[in-house]
Write a structure and sequence with these properties.
- By secondary structure, the protein is mostly helical.
- It has one domain: Alpha Horseshoe (Serine Threonine Protein Phosphatase 5, Tetratricopeptide repeat).
- Helix content is 65%, strand content 0%.
- It is elongated, with a radius of gyration of 17 Å.
Length: 187
């Protein structure tokens, strides 16, 4: 899963400029695999949505069906279809509640709806379950933390995003905005 959320603190429109989506691996060939590849590589979502729909209309294992719902949700999120993406993430998680990417991606939709505390819970659960691109999950959670005024947690998550991926410029750019001030003794 490629997590790709954007700057929620700035505006909802800006939210989908560089955000967080993450794809879930599907075993085998066919439409489900093409859906996964599109979600994982950031291919033009409108060009691959048909493969996701074909896969879900066919016979899939529960694991592949759950993954395909999450992957289609990633493509829908890339198209700014937040509510439909959330429905797909929910459908995938209803089948397999152990997909970290599903929670992280659903967290992105919650950020879009300014449900920051719920987003933090989902993203945290996704990180606990495991996600391929943890730096993006930490980045999204930092944005949600910052939106609710928890600047220390936001700072810590931006730092963690950068620790996981030292070349992640979105996190380093955000960290550059922070000024560290030492508290006087006894404060």
């Amino acid at each position: 899963m490629r997590i790709r959320l954007l700057s929620v603190v700035i505006a909802a429109a800006a939210l989908f400029a560089g955000g967080a989506e993450a794809a879930v691996t599907v075993i085998g060939a066919g439409p489900a695999e093409l859906c996964y590849q599109a979600a994982d590589t950031g291919a033009a979502p409108q060009d691959f949505m048909t493969y996701c729909n074909q896969a879900l209309a066919g016979s899939l294992s529960d694991a592949d069906r759950a993954a395909t719902y999450v992957n289609r949700g990633v493509l829908k999120l890339a198209l700014n279809d937040v509510d439909s993406a959330a429905a797909d993430f929910n459908a995938g998680l209803a089948i397999n509640a152990n997909m970290g990417e599903g929670y992280v991606d659903r967290g992105a939709t919650l950020i879009a709806h300014k449900r920051y505390a719920d987003a933090i819970r989902d993203i945290s659960k996704g990180l606990t379950l495991g996600t391929k691109e943890a730096h993006l999950a930490y980045y999204d959670r930092a944005m949600a933390d910052e939106a609710i005024g928890n600047l220390q947690a936001a700072y810590d998550d931006y730092r963690q995003a950068l620790a996981v991926n030292p070349n992640f410029t979105l996190a380093s750019d955000e960290l550059a905005r922070f000024k560290i001030v030492e508290k006087p003794n006894g404060a």
